[in-house]
Design brief:
mainly alpha, globular, two-stranded antiparallel ribbon, Chitosanase, subunit A, domain 1, 217 residues, 2 strands
Length: 217
């Protein structure tokens, strides 16, 4: 295993991952406006706003520093979505300083899918791949030194470890959603109800999307 985390990356160069490629893949996977009531990211302060171009109501509210209206969400352009993806997600993983494109794109999807809380998970996965804790397990965004550490890992192993962890995470999210429904309704949920009212309805799509991420050296 290469151990190059002490050699920091000081500037962006042509050997680094490309945000435009990563965001294009994201747009290809995302549709336009949707306001599925089972998707908790569609809400801000209990109000159903929706998602557009992969930008959730929560992300748009963070970017605007206020709650967007439904009309504003429907009118969101891809150009504005790119600005949001760059500032709120790509920059949080120091994507411009990650060398492997496929690794950067999967890290990017982590924080798009669940926000800053995924940063600590990415650091934990990196530490596990390395074999001992080096990165501090917190949700502070990646910097150049953390990106350099990631670049020094066995890239294929880190990539596969991310995919494995993500599959377990999906199962956990679905289980929590089902449990919440059952506690609210005070009875066991049926399979049909789970597919209609809980995040189990998204599980097949999440897994399919994850499987579109293929490692490339």
């Amino acid at each position: 295993m290469r151990r190059t985390h002490h050699k920091y990356v000081n500037e962006k160069n042509n050997n680094m991952a490309d945000f435009s490629i990563a965001v294009a893949k994201t747009f290809n996977a995302e549709g336009g406006y949707q306001a599925d009531p089972a998707d908790t990211a569609n809400y801000v302060k209990g109000v159903l706003i929706g998602t557009n171009h992969g930008i959730s109501a929560i992300a748009y509210a963070t970017y605007l520093k206020r709650t967007p209206t439904v009309d504003e969400m429907k009118a969101l352009t891809q150009d504005t979505a790119k600005l949001i993806f760059k500032s709120l997600f790509w920059d949080k993983i120091a994507g411009d300083y990650i060398t492997n494109q496929s690794v950067s794109q999967l890290m990017f999807q982590y924080v798009i899918g669940a926000g800053d809380e995924q940063i600590s998970d990415l650091k934990d996965i990196a530490n596990s791949t390395y074999g001992k804790p080096v990165l501090i397990s917190n949700d502070v965004p990646f910097g150049k030194s953390e990106a350099s550490f990631v670049n020094g890992l066995d890239q294929a192993k880190f990539f596969e470890n991310m995919k494995t962890w993500r599959l377990h995470y999906y199962d956990l999210v679905v289980a929590r959603s089902v449990t919440k429904w059952e506690l609210t309704n005070k009875r066991k949920i049926t399979d049909a109800e789970a597919l209609q009212f809980t995040k189990k309805k998204f599980l097949a799509g999440w897994r399919h999307r994850l499987n579109t991420h293929i490692f490339s050296a």
